Amino acid sequence: MKDRIKKIMDNEDLTPARFADNLQINRAVISHILNGRNNPSLDVVMKILSEMDYINSDWLLNGTGSMYRDGYIPSKNQNKQSLFDVDATDVETNQGAFKNHKEKQVEHVNIETNTIDKQDVIDTNSMNRKIKEIIIYYTDNTFESFIPH
Q1: How many CA atoms lie within 13 A of 62 on its CB side?
Q2: In what helix (H) or strand (E) does residue 81 lie, and over which residues does it extend?
Q3: Can you tell me whether residue 106 is helix, strand or coil?
Q4: Is residue 4 within 8 Å of residue 66, measured between CB atoms?
Q5: CA pair distance 137, 144, nearest whole angstrom
Q6: Which of 6, 38, 55, 100 has the fewest CB atoms within 10 Å, i.e. the most exposed one?
Q7: Are 135 and 143 in contact (CB under 8 A)?
Q8: Which residues of 86-122 are buried (b: 16+ CB within 10 A; e: fewer)?
Q9: What is the 8-class DSSP label of residue 27?
Q10: What is the pLDDT of residues 45-98, one digit of tens each?
Q11: Which CA distances in Å does 94 have to 22, 81, 83, 85?
């Protein structure tokens, strides 16, 4: 049954953590099942079948038949969410906010320049500040830390 649970997660593009969250069970339970430490309890099997009602119970329990119930057509991208996915209600709200917005073109801008005498300005607060540490983060998720002596 462990392999069939893995297959459900693969077909649904779910991580073990996301799968456990969807079933509203502890993540450790799924981890223990996938690592072979524990067999799935009746509670876990029932949660899978109730939350994912399109999964064929005969297939999950015995490995017979097809994974999905008759008439169900799996969509490969149904659980993938982009970082930029927007809820439909948000789109309608934002469109309403810009409905009355009009752009105006500026034909000519007259900028008057005033000459200002250059003066040295000394910020007394900055004199007391010193660099404590500089951290550089790289794209390979490493970093370097520099501390002045």
Answers
A1: 6
A2: none
A3: coil
A4: no
A5: 7
A6: 100
A7: yes
A8: eeeeeeeeeeeeeeeeeeeeeeeeeeeeeeeeeeeee
A9: H
A10: 999 999 988 999 999 999 988 888 888 877 655 555 555 555 555 555 555 555
A11: 30, 20, 18, 14
Token duo for residue 118: 């250059």
> Is residue 55 within 8 Å of 69, Cβ to Cβ?
yes
Phi, psi of 143 (to 5 degrees): -150, 160
Cross-strand bridge partners of residue 136 = 144
What token pair was written down for 92? 């309608």
Pairing of strands 143-146, 134-137: antiparallel
Q: Which residues does 27 contact at the CB level (< 8 Å), separation at least 6?
A: 16, 17, 20, 21
What is the reported pTM?
A: 0.50
Residue type, 78: Q
Tokens 């149904």 belong to residue: 78
